[in-house]
Every structure is written in structure tokens, then in C-alpha cells.
Amino acid sequence: MRSLLASLLLMLLVAPALAQESHEASPADDPAATVEADVSTRSLEVTTGFTGHEIVVFGAIDNSEAPTNGSGYYDVVVVVEGTPLPLVVRRKSDVGGVWINTSSVTFASVPSYYAIASTRPIEEIAGPAVLERHAIGMQHIKMTPSTHKGAIEDYELAAFRSAVIRLKKSQNLYVLEPKDGVTFVGRSLFRATIPLPANVPVGPLVARTYLFHNGQVVSAHIARVTLHRAGIERLVHNFAFVHPASYGFIAVVLAIASGLLASAYFRRRPS
Amino acid sequence: MHIYLPIAEMSVNVLLFLGMGWAVGFLSGMFGVGGGFLLTPLLMFMGVPTAVAVGTGSMHILASSVSGAIAQYQRRNVDVKMGIVLVVGGIVGSIIGVALMKLLRQIGQFDLFVSLSYVTFLGAVGALMMIESLGSIRKRQTAQPVPHKTRQHNWVHGLPLKMRFHRSKLYISALPPAAIGAFVGFMAAIMGVGGGFVMVPAMIYLLRVPTSVVIGTSLFQIVFVMAATTFLQAIQNKTVDVVLALVLIIGGVIGAQFGAAAGGRLKGEQLRFLLAALVLLVGLRIGWDLITQPTELYSIGPVIGGAS
Prior knowledge:
The complex is a heterodimer. Chain A is of the alpha+beta class. Chain A has two domains: about 1-230, no CATH class; about 230-270. Chain A has six helices and 13 strands. Chain A has helices at about 1-25, 120-125, 130-135, 155-170, 230-240, 245-270, and strands at about 35-40, 45, 55-60, 75-80, 85-95, 100-110, 115-120, 145, 175, 180-185, 190-195, 205-215, 215-230. In chain A, strand 5 (about 85-95) and strand 6 form a beta hairpin. Chain A is globular, with a radius of gyration of 24 Å. Chain A starts with a helix and ends with a helix. Residues about 10-30 of chain A have low confidence and may be disordered. The N and C termini of chain B lie far apart (about 40 Å). Chain B is globular. Helix content of chain B is about 70%, strand content about 5%. Chain B contains ten helices and five strands. The model of chain B has no long low-confidence stretch (mean pLDDT about 85). In chain B, strands 1-2 form a two-stranded antiparallel sheet. A two-stranded antiparallel ribbon of chain B has the order 3-4. Chain B is mostly helical. In chain B, helix 6 packs antiparallel against helix 7 (about 195-205). Chain B has one domain (about 1-140, about 155-290). At the A-B interface, strand 5, strand 6, helix 4, helix 5 and helix 6 of A face strand 1, helix 3, helix 8, helix 9 and strand 5 of B.
């Protein structure tokens, strides 16, 4: 039911873009090929022991026009995106021998997490315009700068943008799966494995699945995963941010208690 | 075995951090210092955000100094009146420090400020300690009698607001101890240290507090100021990671027991020489990171309330 709703929603969203594309792709009155997908885990708990998790995005192509064992006829791209959050990027430069943050760009929204898996390298699947429209690929991730003071040239902005991608990649938060990230099982079933690292920011994740044919999006589907804090980890984090005064007080009490306990323990022991 | 730190928002190897706590505890037990100046940079090197390292550092220092302070109090080595003056100053300094920290984080210069503070203080204190300890080692070798310092009046004794500190046998203005307390409180908030390495010499050389009550009184100040700082950091900057602090405390108290035993086998000036070398090394390491070109010039971070 939920995925049905989600797909309806998506249809509304991408309908204008799809209208012409699917037109080209499906000949005559044949029902157009559509893609449906889901994620192995709908909701994931980030607990104190959380060390990352792998989610599997799987799906099927309906009304496939592919010849038997249809490898190559269709391409599937899976994009998993985390909640967009504001982000500051700072650049250091040499000021009298000391490396100091001298310039910064604030992006109003940058996906906290971004993973992409596809049947082939995405550049081979579609042209840059199509990829840009659907925000597929690292260089097409939507980032909107919020402090554009005019002083920042476009090429500089591009440098800050690529710094975000580079740094996020090094934190395993932006992931480009190897070329066979999406594998077909038979004629119309496919699956992709997406690794979520331990430091993945909590919040909803959106898994977008695109079906490509001849460089155009034929169909798309959205599924969602929610990552939420659980256990002691959630308790501590929420407490610290919702009741900072009580949290601070407890931190003080805990520190004093543990200090006293430890010394009492070691004093009793014959040394 | 990994655990997820709720405030630092990173997954760390709990054994590694227990070991770090142990090592810092060992060194602080051996040298009789708080160890904040070792722990905070170590956490920074491990990738804990600087602000979280500093905030959590205060909680760790509170835990590791509370039992010592009580022991000193029971041995009547605390000048409570002097301690209260130092604490009042310290809390004022801590409030300023925590507020400045918030501002510096917003403009993205907090890490730089912390590094510069570390380089300055560790460099100065380390160099002074090194000179002093080398001097005592040489004196011991030539067996010269150490000249006794005469109790002389200096400019400190000319200030108003005079108070009588019975246990310290002093009749001096309350302003210098309050100022020292404030300075140490400020440093504590910004650098995640207890500040004993500044407070103890300042009390001995500027205030002429008898050495018998210096350690106890400075521990008294550290406990109260660290409690206030932990509280303020939690409210203003939300950078106290209780889980991280507890892991470090557990490692630290065990390490301190071994450290104290090891320290008992070394002579005072040898210990001070080793401590000075350690302090200088940490300072040089942080300074090195400031002046060498970083491999990554860019850094990313969350937008902190109202940042530009």
C-alpha cells in the first residue's frame, strides 16, 4: 500500500518529464515498461552498537520488452539519498605561515548521504542532461549555495562543490558502487546492494530506481527507508539536545560518582 | 568491539579508547597532573570533533580530580576561602570561554584558536619546566645548596579588597586570586584542560601561597570549575559526550593506579624533566599541523545556529 502511494506520488512528480520519454520508448499501443522496486529494510535502528548496515534495493520490470535474458536492453540505476541538510564548507590558506580557514561557502541543502548503483557506468547509460535532470551521479547532486555574496566566482563554487563530494566520499557517505552495482536475476528481476556506513546521518532515506532504455528514463520508482536512533544512543542524544540543562547536570553527577567509585574501589584493594 | 558515540556521532573501537584513557591516566598518575592537556589533543588526533573533545575533556577532568580533592580536603590541605575566590573567578572565566567557543565555532575559527592556545601554553610551560628541571638536576649533581626564597612583598600586595586567608597565612587582595581563577576557568572551557599547570605556579610565585596548600586548593578550584564548565558546555554547545567520557574515565582510573606506582620509583626532577619533554612534544605536534600544508584544504561541517 505504501509503495503504491509512493509510486503514485512519483508518477505525479516525474509525469511531465516522463510523458515525452516514455512516448519515444514504447512503440504503438503496447503497455509501457515500468519499474517497481522496494528496499529490504523499511526502517533501521541506529543503536550504540551500530556499525553500519547493508540495504538491498530489489525490483522488477513490468511489461519488459527485452529479448530473452535481457541484459543490455534496459539499464537500471538505483540512487539512495539521505536527508538534505545545510552544510558549511571552509577552505584553508596560508596566512603568514599558518594554515587558517579563510573562505567559506554555505550550502542550504546537501544530501547527507548519496549512493548510486547501476547496471553500467552511468555515463554510458545516459547523457549529462538527463542525468542532471534526475540528479543521478556525483557531479549532478543538488547543492544550493545559500551565501552567494557575488564575491564567489562560479569556478570557485565548483571547487567547493567538488570538495564536498571528495570529503563525503572519504567519509564513505557518498558511494559509487562498482559497475555491476545493479545485477539482473533472470529477465526482469534486479537487485542492488547499498552499504550504509556507521556514520550515516539518521533521517529518512529515499531510494529512487530508474529504468533506462536508449538513454532515456522509461520509468521510475521511489521507496523509502527511515533511519532512526534507538536504545541508549537515542536516549542520550535526544536528552542532550532536548533537555540540555538536565543532561549537563547528569553529566556532572556521573563524573563525580564514577570518580568517587573508582577511588573507593582502589582504596579497598590491598596494593 | 565498536560503540557509537551519541554526541561525537561516530563509531569507535571501545578497546582503543579504553586504552587511550588508560595511557593518559597512567601518565597523569605518574606525574601527578590532570592529563587534560594530553587527552584533549589525543581525542582531536583520533578524529573526535575539537568541540566535543574539549567539552568531554571537562567531564573527564572532573571525574579524575574529585577523589584527589576530597583526600586533600580531609588532610586539611585546602584553603577553602582562597579556593572559593578562585572558583568564583573560574566560573566567570568559564562562562566567557564557553560563550567565545560558541562564537568561534560559528565563524569556523575554533579549531585554530584551540591549536594556537595549545601551542602557546604547552610551549611556554614546557620550556619553563624543562629549564627548571635541568637546573635542579645539575644542582643535585654539583651538590650545591638550593637558595631559599625569601618571602618578599611584590606588586600583588598593593591592590585593594584585601582579605585574610588563614590557612595560607596571607593577607592579600582578593583580586589576583580571582583573576588567576578566571584565567584558568577560561582556559579550561576553551582547551578542555584543568589548568593546574598554570594555577599551581601562579599561586606559588605570584601569590606566595605555601606549597603545602597549593595542590589541595588548586584541586578544589578545578573540581568546582570543571563541574560548572561541563554543565555550561552541555547547555551552550551540546558538546559533552557522556558515553565517550565514561569510557575514558574507566580507562583513566585504572591507568592512574599503575602510573602512580611507576612515578614513585623516579626522582622529582627526573619526573619534571620527562613531563616537560612530553608537554613540549604535544605542543610541537599541534604546531606542526598548523604550519604544514594540509593534504586537504577544505573541511565540511554543520551550520551552527546563525552562522555566516
